[in-house]
Design a protein that fits this description.
- The chain has 93 residues and is an all-alpha fold.
- Helices cover 89% and strands 0% of the residues.
- It is built from three helices and no strands.
- The longest helix is centred in the C-terminal third of the chain and has 43 residues.
- It is elongated and about 95 Å long.
Length: 93
């Protein structure tokens, strides 16, 4: 590092420059380190056997609920179509 500083023109205090650069990079990475730590905790939370079991159970319930909603919407839609046919038949619209 010292030799590189000697070869560069205009850089007289390389130790201070290297330290400043190290501090800047370190402070710049702090938010990323926080996000990485949070992501790791979240991954550990969901990869524990107990939480994985709960997550699968919730997904099954959600899937079951979505199927029920789709059935209800399908029935309502078919009722609307049936009413539309009756109106067309009786009122010749």
């Amino acid at each position: 590092m010292v030799r590189a500083g000697q070869l560069m023109e205009g850089v007289t205090r390389l130790p201070c420059t290297a330290h400043t650069l190290q501090l800047v990079v370190g402070k710049g990475l702090m938010p990323a380190e926080t996000l990485v730590a949070r992501a790791k905790r979240l991954m550990l939370f969901f990869t524990s056997p107990k939480q994985t079991e709960k997550l699968i159970e919730i997904q099954k319930k959600e899937r079951h609920l979505q199927v029920e909603v789709n059935i209800i919407l399908s029935l309502y839609y078919s009722d609307i179509l049936f009413c539309k046919l009756i109106i067309k038949f009786f009122f010749r619209v």
